[in-house]
Amino acid sequence: FKKPCLKPLSLLLCLTPMSLCHSKLSCKEGHSGPTYESMQDVFDLKPFRPAVNLSNPTIANISFTLYAVLGVIISSLFLMNLLQYWHNEFLVWEPDECDGVTRISLPVMHLWSPDIIVYDVDDDVSQACPYVYVNHTGHIRWDRMLRLVSACNLKIFSFPFDVQNCTFTFGSYMVSPALTFIEMSSNSKRYLEASGEWELVDILGETSILQFGIDEWDIITFWVVIKRRPVLYVVNLLIPSSFLMLIDILSFYLPPHSVDRASFKMTLILGYTVFLLIMNDLLPSTANGTPIIGIYFSVCLALMVISLLETVIITNVLHHNSMKYREVPNWVRVVVLKHIANLICYRWPEDSQLCQQSLLPGTAAPPELQQICQYLGDLRDHLTSLKKESELQEQWCHVGYVLDFLLFRIYLLLISCYALVIIFMWCIWISQ
């Protein structure tokens, strides 16, 4: 080395048997690579930073490749390969003197390594690679497969079309990125293209300096932007829910005077409730808010309950009021049978007239014929009474049908507006 050992620590390093301050690693003839004895002297210097002149900084360069997003529920679990590069000025040799060997692997536990600290992480349960790769110029590469649990601020309102932004912060006394952020993002996208339900959008970053008193730390902050693939949730959640809502809409075409419509809607609500219980395990549960898809399911359930309530009202109009044989109020005739019926274009056949016949006045008849006429008159009165009851039932049926048509169209309007709002909001999130 050109620079002399001037400082006390450098003088201490110069007292080693191999005289590291003035020579390179030695090699024996017939052996590939540096000798064990020369490297053992380097291992003994593990507590000291590997610089001949301590005024020269040792810069640690880092980069990472994101391999998988293992889970995003309350926190985010990432699997990444962290690459660390630094220069050890003591591990230098001539390849020509060492049988052409240009790179070797050594146990990292015997070498000095930079103190890289990962912030914004709950737990690191990864196992570091026990070996590093060293080339003949003294440059070291250490691959570490990290399984990091990052406490991201999850935004799940737009689930399953949500985009998450997770932060990783790396710090050391002197650290800098080994690759550009664009290159890191490109390398990670190759591994995440067909992996899991998450898609990597981009990896952004910046470098800064953090000062603690007189100490200064270099900080590298990475922002990992990931987007959920929504196909699984659309197929398993949205499409079945839409089918159930479609069946509920079609149930309005059942005869309103039939009790089967009410029982059918109650069975449908029960089935939708079971669907919500099963679906609950697929939705993310955080304290940050409720996803809009959860609100969507709740509103769908509320609409189905409203649909059942409409059936109950129509059933009451058709059966309860008609069984009392009460006249249809005049205001109901005007409002429902005239204005609302014209508004929704409801038409019904004209009422048939009952033909009445009577005996000619002044006609004399024998007693037997008079008794027959009396029986016929009683029968006519009974038939007239039945016809009146039938007319009353028919009038209430018209009222019920008109109200059913009206409420059905209002129900369709509500569902259409609600579906358009949901589709519009999700289209905006998908295009982002």
Automatic annotation (TrEMBL):
Decide whether keyword Glycosyltransferase is in the record.
no
Source taxon at top rank: Eukaryota
Which residues belong to the signal peptide in this entry?
1-21
Q: Where are the transmembrane segments?
A: 64-83, 231-254, 266-283, 295-318, 410-430
CDD domains given in the database record? LGIC_TM_5-HT3 (cd19063)
Coiled coil segments of this chain: none
As one GO molecular function, the record gives: transmembrane signaling receptor activity
What is the membrane topology here?
A: Multi-pass membrane protein
Annotated catalysed reactions:
Na(+)(in) = Na(+)(out); Ca(2+)(in) = Ca(2+)(out); K(+)(in) = K(+)(out)
Q: Which InterPro entries match?
A: LGIC_TM_5-HT3, Neur_chan_lig-bd, Neur_chan_lig-bd_sf, Neur_channel, Neuro-gated_channel_TM_sf, Neuro_actylchol_rec, Neurotrans-gated_channel_TM, Neurotransmitter_ion_chnl_CS
PROSITE patterns, per the entry: NEUROTR_ION_CHANNEL
Gene Ontology CC: postsynaptic membrane
Its annotated function is as follows: Forms serotonin (5-hydroxytryptamine/5-HT3)-activated cation-selective channel complexes, which when activated cause fast, depolarizing responses in neurons.
**Name of the protein described by the UniProt record:** 5-hydroxytryptamine (serotonin) receptor 3A
Q: Which organism is it from?
A: Labrus bergylta (ballan wrasse)
